[in-house]
Each structure stands twice: as structure tokens, then as C-alpha cells.
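Notes, p. 3: input format for complexes.
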Amino acid sequence: MNILLLGSGGREHTLAWKLSQSPKLQHLFVAPGNAGTSSIATNLYLNINDFDEVKKAVLNNDIHMVIIGPEDPLVNGIHDYFLQDTALKDIPVIGPEKLAATLEGSKDFAKQFMMRHGIPTAAYQSFTAETLEKGFAFLETLKPPYVLKADGLAAGKGVVILADIEEARAELSHMLLESKFGKASTTVVIEEFLSGIELSCFVLTDGKHYKVLPTAKDYKKIGEGDRGLNTGGMGAISPVPFAEETFMAKVNKQIIVPTIQGLQKDNIPYRGFIFIGLIKVGEDPFVIEYNVRLGDPETEVILPRIKNDLLTVFEAAADQTLDSIDLEIDERSAVTVMTVSGGYPEAYKKGYEIQGLESITDSLVFHAGTTIKDNKILTNGGRVIAVTSFGKDHVEALQKSYRNVEKIGFEGKYYRKDLGFDL
Ligand code: AMP
Ligand code: GLY
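Output follows (423 residues plus adenosine monophosphate):
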């Protein structure tokens, strides 16, 4: 089969690495990809949110399946575009249609879905500029800290947590009246603060059946001890040690099953990954958010633990025969450590040469923001290279990744040295 994979991060390099092990694969194309994907696939330089361009690439390269990495093409309706096009409608797309992608594209939609189906999540209300005063009144009913969320996609920056009610009122005005997050904050969700430890759970569904993938925990903050600004993710660990059997049984019963059944009851077709952001409060799971894709860098630890041929799994997702698949999971722990550009997640420079990658032989090297120029690998983003290792537990795996991260050299390189500190 010829496959087109959309995206350009560490998640996509990992997907490409896993797909390229399939005996069913003929040719893999990645658009736009990075230096890592260019070594195992053909990169296509196109705008993945211009669906006419994607269509041309699909037809020119005789593509049999399209796999969507990031959320924006999904939220923009790429799957629907394929279904509505006579030349594309029979080419399976792994990633949900626009309606289902609204679970990530609108926090208010996701909250209503959870309420409708009895899925545990923080109490909330939604407000617009017209209901600002009601928003202030709702804040008065909550205990601090106050959680304010822009309804729409805001590049991971749309959630603000404030300890002080005056600040929360000001922030609410800022979001609703001054469009702090553009159109994304036309509606703002205010919710109860939940105190606990976070983890991510991943499900692949064909709309009828589903498979639960390994759990993962990512480290979102730039600074050690989980301090400072949010990033896309500074590293990840799988499995999550505190997600033991009893807890996961609750996650399955209270969250995964009602989510899949809720989609069916609401007539929301879904073929693809569901990423459920969870928080463990005491012994109970609550949903923080849904995403309609795999996480990054969670993918860098989840996929290496799946032993199955990923293309066979995707074919089953496309044919609605996921029930025929038995997932085989590596018992070992996998961790990934992300190296990032100095200054990230604020302003940073690109174009520095990356050295030492070839000397890493006992870890997996996944490229995130990299490009290749004159046979040199250069930094090309905030998150640059993820180093994934296995171990009998996350502590052993981390030692290996840290040893190898030190072999990587580029100007301004930074990484967190304390992953797993909270476990
Ligand atoms: P989200 O974009 O919805 O995942 O939110 C970003 C981050 O804000 C989450 O990863 C949590 O750390 C935090 N957060 C979101 N909602 C809540 C909540 N209700 N209580 C506590 N923390 C939250
Ligand atoms: N690592 C979090 C995310 O992919 O959204």
C-alpha cells in the first residue's frame, strides 16, 4: 500500500518509523515531514490545510490510505472533504470527521457531550460577551483557583488558571470583550478546579469497536518541577505507574465505554484516535479534555510499545473490523526526553546544525522540528529531537535516554532533567 501521512513533528516521525516496518507498505509519503521522515519516506512539501493540494498529492502518488497526525486538518474537515469527493471517497482516512473533531475544536461541545453521557468531568458553565455578568456571578460560586478556557483551538495556550477572583474577572473580560484568543475565545468555559495528577489515555476506534492503547504521562511545563510556561510537551513516560488495574477498570467503565457509546447514540461517526486527557482525583478519573489525534510526545512512547503491524491495525480501523485485532504490548517501560531550542516556548532561533545523532545506537531518535539542508540536519522548530528508550521501569529507561541526549549537540539545546520526578 502507498500511504500519505500528514504532519511534521515527533509524532509523525514515530508513525512513519512504525509504518515503515510493515511488510504491506510499498511507499510512504509524509507531508510536509521533517529531516527524520525524509530518511525513511518521501517528504512532500504541501500545505496540509489546503485540501485541494492534498487531493493532488493523493492522486499523483496513487495513495491508498491517508493518516492525519495533527488536529487542525481534522477540525477543518479534511475527512469530510474526502467523503464528498468522487475521486477520494473510497480512500480511507484515519482521523475523525469534522463533527467528531469538534470534541477537540470546541471545549463547550466536549463538555456538553460529557454531561449528556454522564462522563465524569469538572462542573462548568459557558459564557459569551452577552453573558459576561453571569460569568462574573458564576465565578463567585466557585472556590479558587479559577479555570478559564477559550472554547476554540488556541495552540495549547487557551487555558488560564488564576488564584485571585479579581484576576479571573479581568481575564474573563479580556477573553470575551477583547478577543484575547481571537475567535477561539468568543465563548469561554469556566470550570471547577480539580486537584490531582494527570495522565493520558488513548483509544483507537472504528466507530463500532475500539482498542485501548498504552497510557502515557507527558510533562507539559518548560521548567523542572513542572514550573513555568506550558509547552507542547517536554517528554513522556509509558505506562503510567499510578494507572494500575483498578484505576484503569474505572477509566474503561466510566469514561471509555460511555464515550464510544455516546458517539454512537449521538450519531457521530468516528474513525481514528481519541486522546483522553485525564486527572486522577483521589482514586477517581475525570476528563480534562478530549483530543482527536495522538499526543506528541506521547506517541514517541506509545507506538514503540505496540508490537502489532500498525498498517494492519489501520486497515482494520478503516474496515470496521478492529474487533479482529489483538493488541500486543511490550511490557517494558518506554520514556522519551525532548530536546528543545533555547527560548522555547517563547521566541527562539532556528537553523542550528544538530550533531551527534549517529552516535546514538541504543535509543530511538525521533525528529520533531528539524530540516535537512546541504546534507546537514538543522533545527527547525521549538521542539527538536526526542530520544526514546526502553527499560525495566521508567527510571532505567530515563537513564538511557539522558545518557544519549547528552550526545546531541546544537546551539541553545535545553531539556528537562527531572522527568518522572512526581512518580
Ligand atoms: P486543557 O487544554 O483543557 O488540557 O487544559 C490545559 C491544562 O490545564 C491541563 O493539562 C491541566 O493541567 C489544566 N487544567 C485544565 N482544566 C483543569 C481543571 N478543571 N482543574 C485543574 N486543572 C485543569
Ligand atoms: N502532549 C500533549 C498534546 O499532544 O496535546
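The first helix runs from residue 10 to 19.
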